[in-house]
Amino acid sequence: MGFYRKLSQREGVNYRLPTEAEWEYACRAGAKTIFYWGNDFDGSYAWYYENSGIQTQPVGEKRPNALGLYDMSGNVWEWCQDWYGEYYYGSSPLRDPQGPSSGAYRVVRGGSWLNPPEGLRSSRRSYCYPDPDVYYGPDVGFLSSGM
Description:
single chain, 2 helices, little secondary structure
């Protein structure tokens, strides 16, 4: 979030992380399948533990989704603006949910190069503690490509 704050100040435009709902909309690109490319895993779309060399890879080397966005599944977990709520979506608004108003963790989406194929489903979600002094490792980042 600090990156987006500095970018916003420099550019004079309000940038921010996507909400979890925005992230999933961008990831799926209209698809209703398990992965944004279909129901069967295809390593030509995602970096995961079997093809990543056990490290983060340059963005844009795999096939993009229907919106032209790269690495929406695999490579690195992507931070979202939302606080994590395990059961939030059971009672959230159907249109443009904004996530819980507070919490201890922020949502991360998309899976990473450490995951097996089933960990890269478009619906896959997890969370991380949002402390800038905590090192999350090389498999947590943010959406910055193809936009």
